[in-house]
């Protein structure tokens, strides 16, 4: 059975329909008529032609967002915002089969991941933040003036420009949209050019859920054009971005010059640490999942496996065996456990790092090549395990964003903590041990925004997620995410 044979009728119909910009509640072509193609990374074939936003489209979207903020959306009561967010979560679940196949076609991830992880987490995120609108409060503040009444108001920061990556297109949209909408902001969303389809569908569902026109505008396009226009637009009050550190620096510089609010969730080279007292089979299985899930294309991937020396060989052998058991294939094939990389550009990046590792003398335990034969038309790389990799090698320092695991031995916990922190990133870390004191001591010492102990890559809408150092600043998830879309106003009233 081919990928085409596995498509649901509603998916076929959706792919044949127009994929236009959503601005002010209406779908339409770009003002200059520009379009681009989105590709199935499992076979390299074109999925759909999508309208490409330019400067004029961004102008119109920002104006629509400002109009909605000052108009109908600004008059929504907290309970109305709550109902709209809950209805959107319901619609995501009601349309789950359509959304899951679109996400897999556009991104390449196995359908099981789209259906069983991305969609439930997305709906859960909207439901979590639906509980916040009625709990956004100010406070009365006593002062040194006896006849003065002083209170604060928590108000929406305004129009938000949200720029999201291609690895979790639907879920990353939810991470930005749910807290922004709960806070009362309006949004112009620019999805990654590689994966625009589910963002556009999400915009349609938002209208169906009762969000007024202009509250959510969806403008697919390229970073150098639509993204830059959105970041620099004087009508945008805040930028929230998830992506690479290089682009994050550029956005931060531009937004800082305009004195915009900005939050950045950037890359990672996350150490996954296994101490000698850990259960080897459990830790090795989790370590393989931590790097090979979504073909390593996650910012929190456990891409640097650090193992205490006395169990190092056993752990590396076990992880390599798990890698060999993975089944590469198209995301719609139910046998697939490892999908393709998202694009030809990403394929070149990852294979370039593999060539670098080979030149630098890294030991390849398994994998190390682009997958060929029946998979040659797609962007597939074999799951790769590299052993005994020195700290100074490029593959040990850089975020590869592919199914490439660097493994290293360490002797003492003190040595480990120093080496694990000697990196530009600080997004996440994992610790595997049966000693609770060691676990929490390492959690304190590791410079990372998230530390998972005896687990890895768990997420919940209630829990903040973000990084230290070059992994960015600001948090997605939890109250911390909501607060970045709010600003405080102080009101003084003379009662004398």
From TrEMBL:
GO molecular function, one term: oxidoreductase activity, acting on the aldehyde or oxo group of donors, NAD or NADP as acceptor
Keyword Plastid recorded: no
Domain Aldehyde dehydrogenase: 33-491
Alphabetic keyword roster: Oxidoreductase
Pfam family, one: Aldedh
Keyword Oxidoreductase: yes
InterPro entries in the cross-refs: Ald_DH/histidinol_DH, Ald_DH_C, Ald_DH_CS_CYS, Ald_DH_CS_GLU, Ald_DH_N, Aldehyde_DH_dom
Domain of life, per lineage: Bacteria
Active site: 265
PANTHER family assigned: ALDEHYDE DEHYDROGENASE-RELATED
Family: Belongs to the aldehyde dehydrogenase family.
Record's protein name: Aldehyde dehydrogenase family protein
